[in-house]
UniProtKB/TrEMBL annotation, chain A:
Its main location: membrane. It comes from the Bacteria. Keywords: ATP-binding, Cell membrane, Membrane, Nucleotide-binding, Repeat, Sugar transport, Translocase, Transport. GO terms for molecular function: ATP binding; ATP hydrolysis activity. The keyword Secreted does not apply. Residues 6-241, 258-505 form the ABC transporter domain. Belongs to the ABC transporter superfamily. This is Simple sugar transport system ATP-binding protein.
UniProtKB/TrEMBL annotation, chain B:
It comes from Shinella fusca. PANTHER family: ABC TRANSPORTER, PERMEASE PROTEIN (PTHR47089), GUANOSINE ABC TRANSPORTER PERMEASE PROTEIN NUPP (PTHR47089:SF1). This is Simple sugar transport system permease protein. It is a multi-pass membrane protein. Keywords: Cell membrane, Membrane, Sugar transport, Transmembrane, Transmembrane helix, Transport. The keyword Transport applies. One of its GO terms (molecular function) is transmembrane transporter activity. It comes from the Bacteria. Pfam families: BPD_transp_2 (PF02653). GO terms for cellular component: plasma membrane. The chain crosses the membrane at residues 12-37, 57-79, 91-107, 113-133, 145-164, 196-224, 253-274, 280-299, 330-349. It is found in: Cell membrane. Its main location: membrane.
Length: 511, 377
């Protein structure tokens, strides 16, 4: 028996010219939680895919429990005791928990015997690791936090001793994330080894025993968590010093630019998502909306920007009404000075298959400066895109490159450049730094504060409470479609957390 | 991180892969010919010779090509907007009404070069009209375009049956067709074009609508990649959510796209009606609308791909007819098998050889793995 659960020796992997992993050495001690951090594209996912058998390394050895193994496919990885919880769950949505856990491990053509066995085994696992799940619940009816638990159970059911979690908290609420960490602690105490891939430094500090940092395909350092700091890790990840909290001066709020009154929005099933919401945003201030994802923030943004029809209420933009309950036209709102950075840049803010320059005009393609008579002026569009690429340091600086080939941070910069460069009166931003690397976060935060200092009104929605607190001048907390409180950014995390959880509802909401 | 799917250089992407797919399709077709006891080499000879052996054969090949360019473009335009228009067949059929009306009204009074533009407008108008209804149903009522356009093919067939029987058929005639048009309703053949290459068009109905097809192909390229409408169509096709965000009017774009698609389908009717038969016959479309789907798939919905794909199918039609003529034990149905194999390998199994080819190509020249995706430029 060896001290090490996993040892990687000289792992090397290229995709064409892209050298994704360069001579990686990694030692993961048994019974520990080992964090792997790095910016998007640093090679973390590639390395884990090699360990889980999705790819084969060009060179290098994998040692499990001290002996060399050849992991040709995920089945071999499972046989070697490795389990993986993917960022996007691999569950059959309309199957029950039990069916999902058995899937691929049925053991015989007749399911009955297997089901009885699986049910008993599931009971045991639940008890041992405090992973309560109703085995007969259908996956699509479960919250994401529970779905993730099913993924973990799936790995444990297959007798995994080593559990790899790829960005596990990206979809979780703070409470769910805490619960996940308790589960991981439990697993560790039972002697399992956990590898946690993330780009969130706080999580690393909170839960890991050791942490390895990757940058540009190389493993640049391994530290014992108690002996390092957030600052050091950030610097190792990016390769230079990073400002984790942006500097900003006093807000100078002026006239009301956006005024929302009694806005109510229902979704396609008729469920009320935004419930009688009212607030004002003045020029020169950033108002942040905090809340756990799914409490109506998305619908609020969509209603104000004219993408989704509201059931009732009024919205005034610079004093004149937006027809939110009728046919508010996003294109017309842009002309009136309302810019919108949507929460989902992959499906809403960008068309990933378009060239960069084509995305740089999305929503503004009506502008006569992009037109030459009846035709689009491709030269003008590319020249315009090049200007924005320079101003926002978008890399690679090629307006003809397909947008899907840019990293998350650069994609977000494409959207921000498009929406900010025209000097809108009101800027609505959803999840400005979701899936964006540390270096770009700093840049994006600075830009948002610059907008405020230029006297623009900014409405910010983010599920990252740190981000809301760092940027906002006022914080509104949303819970179950209502604004349940307003706080200053100095309010403690605990206080905001309670509001977000709906514990401390507003007095007037008592029904 | 997404799965890195290495980017192939353009010559491999658009040249080598289709070529390998075609060669495999032909090899398997050869096996089929072998099984029925004939020589595949002889069949291949008749296929090539039948399609390109003489000026007249080339004329026939290009005549079919013309038809497939129109239907291929029709399907491609709808594809760009994310709409799968299966109704090109019916829209082309209905488009024939416009051609027939123009010719019947003016063939005795106006020269062909005045009747032709009227017929183009008529064909487009009726084709667009037939596509408008499914388009409207999709845009306003959410009825799936695939279902409605399939249904509209059947309705078109029945409607044309009725119209040819009760309206267009001259009194006393027994066959379901209009009267034969006079000189004004007959498009000139392109013998001058063939004679440049020292070829004679003979009896082949290779006519001026071929030039229209090339012109319209260029027009489609301009529309899709160089106009605001095309930009909005592509945005819709790739991401309806992004289109809504950008303030693009979804319903309007769906309806306009379907009408354009229908108009292109309708123009196909010019070729057989004014260019070959000089009358409108029952079932003159003969499945060209469905071939258009294969042409658009093979040509990747780009005019520069659609023209060669249409030429390939023109060759299969003409060369295939020649095989069944020269080798009686190979029936017409055998030709359909060969065409089916081409569609199978070039369309449905497009990615079968991609991993192997990618490995070989990138192994030969590592420099080409650079990401350099530009389209429509």
């Amino acid at each position: 028996m060896s001290e090490l659960a996993i040892e990687l020796k000289g792992i090397d992997k290229s995709f064409g010219l892209v050298h994704a992993n360069r001579n990686i050495n990694l030692k993961v001690r048994k019974g520990t939680i080992h964090g792997i951090i790095g910016e998007n594209g640093a090679g973390k996912s590639t390395l884990m895919s090699i360990l889980y058998g999705f790819y084969q390394a060009d060179h290098g050895d994998i040692l499990i429990d001290g002996s060399k193994v050849d992991i040709r496919d995920p089945n071999a990885a499972i046989a070697a005791g490795i389990g993986m919880v993917h960022q996007h769950f691999m569950l059959v949505e309309n199957f029950t928990v039990l069916e999902n856990i058995m899937l691929g491990a049925e053991e015989s053509q007749i399911l009955n015997a297997g089901i009885t066995k699986a049910r008993a085994e599931l009971k045991r696992l639940e008890k041992e690791y405090a992973l309560e799940v109703d085995p007969d619940a259908v996956i699509e009816e479960l919250p994401v936090g529970i779905q993730q638990r099913v993924e973990i159970l799936k790995a444990l059911y297959r007798r995994a001793d080593i559990l790899i979690l790829d960005e596990p908290t990206g979809v979780l609420t703070p409470a769910e994330a805490d619960h996940l960490f308790r589960i991981l602690q439990q697993l560790k105490e039972q002697g399992k080894t956990v590898i946690l891939i993330t780009h969130k430094l706080r999580e690393i500090m909170a839960i890991t025993d050791e942490v390895s940092v990757m940058r540009r395909g190389e493993m640049v350092a391994t530290r014992t968590t108690t002996e390092t700091s957030v600052e050091e890790l950030a610097e190792l990840m990016v390769g230079r010093r990073v400002l984790l909290r942006v500097e900003k001066g006093e807000a100078k709020p002026a006239d009301v630019k956006l005024s929302v009154r009694n806005l109510t929005v229902r979704d396609s099933r008729g469920v009320t998502m935004v419930d009688d919401v009212s607030f004002d945003i003045r020029a020169g201030e950033i108002v942040g909306i905090a809340g756990v994802a799914g409490n109506g923030q998305s619908e609020l943004l969509e209603a104000i920007s004219g993408i989704r029809r509201a059931a009732s209420g009024t919205v005034l933009l610079s004093g004149s009404a937006i027809d939110v309950t009728g046919d508010a036209d996003p294109a017309a709102l842009r002309k009136r000075g309302l810019a919108h950075v949507p929460e989902d840049r992959h499906h809403v803010g960008l068309v990933l298959k378009f060239d960069e320059s084509e995305n740089a005009i999305l929503g503004y393609h009506d502008d006569p400066k992009y037109r030459k008579g009846f035709l689009l002026d491709v030269d003008a569009i590319r020249a315009d895109a090049e200007e924005k690429i320079t101003a926002y340091d978008i890399r690679p600086p090629n307006p003809r490159l397909k947008t899907a080939n840019f990293s998350g941070g650069n994609q977000q910069k494409i959207v921000l450049a498009r929406e900010m460069e025209r000097g809108p009166e009101v800027l609505i931003i959803g999840q400005p730094t979701r899936g964006v690397d540390v270096g770009a976060i700093e840049f994006i935060h600075k830009r948002i504060i610059e907008m405020r200092d230029q006297g623009k009104a900014v409405l910010l929605v983010s599920v990252e409470l740190d981000e809301i607190r760092a940027l906002s001048d006022r914080i509104l907390v949303m819970f179950a479609g209502r604004i349940v409180g307003e706080r200053t950014p100095e309010a403690s995390e605990g206080e905001l957390g309670l509001l977000m959880a709906g514990v401390e509802g507003p007095k007037e909401a008592a029904e | 991180m997404s799965v890195p799917y290495a980017k192939l250089p353009a010559w491999a992407e658009y040249g080598l892969i289709p070529l390998v797919n075609l060669v495999v399709a032909f090899l398997i077709s050869g096996l089929v010919v072998l099984i029925v006891g004939e020589s595949p080499l002889e069949a291949a000879y008749h296929m090539i010779n039948g399609a390109f052996g003489r000026g007249e054969y080339i004329g026939f090949t290009l005549y079919y090509t013309t038809t497939f360019i129109f239907t291929g473009l029709s399907v491609a335009v709808a594809f760009h907007c994310g709409l799968f228009n299966i109704g090109t067949e019916g829209q082309a059929y209905i488009g024939g009404i416009g051609v027939a009306l123009a010719c019947l009204a003016f063939d005795r009074t106006l020269p062909w070069y005045l009747v032709f533009p009227i017929a183009i407008v008529g064909a487009s108008f009726f084709g667009a009209l037939w596509a408008l209804i499914p388009g409207w149903l999709q845009a306003k009522r959410g009825s799936h375009i695939v279902i409605t356009t399939i249904m509209f093919n059947f309705i078109a067939a029945s409607l044309m049956n009725y119209l040819l029987n009760k309206v267009f058929k001259p009194l006393g005639s027994m066959s379901l067709e209009t009267r034969t048009f006079d000189a004004g309703g007959q498009l000139p053949k392109l013998d001058w074009l063939m004679s440049i290459f020292g070829l004679s068009v003979g009896s082949a109905p290779f006519n001026i609508s071929f030039l229209l097809a090339l012109l319209v192909s260029f027009g489609v390229w301009v529309l899709i990649w160089r106009t605001k409408l095309g930009y909005e169509m592509r945005t819709m096709g790739h991401s309806p959510a992004a289109a809504r965000y950008a303030g693009i009017k979804e319903a309007k774009i769906i309806i306009i796209t379907m009408m354009l698609s229908g108009a292109l389908a309708g123009m196909m009717a010019l070729n057989p009606i004014m260019g070959e038969q000089f009358r409108m016959q029952l079932d003159f479309v003969q499945g060209a609308g469905f071939v258009g789907i294969a042409v658009a798939l093979m040509g990747r919905s780009h005019p520069a791909g659609i023209i060669p794909a249409a030429l390939l199918f023109g060759m299969l039609y003409q060369g295939g007819a020649e095989i069944s003529f020269e080798m009686p034990s190979i029936s017409r149905d055998m030709i359909v098998i060969i065409q089916g194999l081409v569609i199978l390998f070039a369309g449905a199994l497009e990615h079968m050889f991609r991993p192997a080819i990618t490995r070989i190509v990138l192994g030969l020249s590592p420099k080409t793995s650079d990401v350099a995706a530009t389209k429509g430029a």
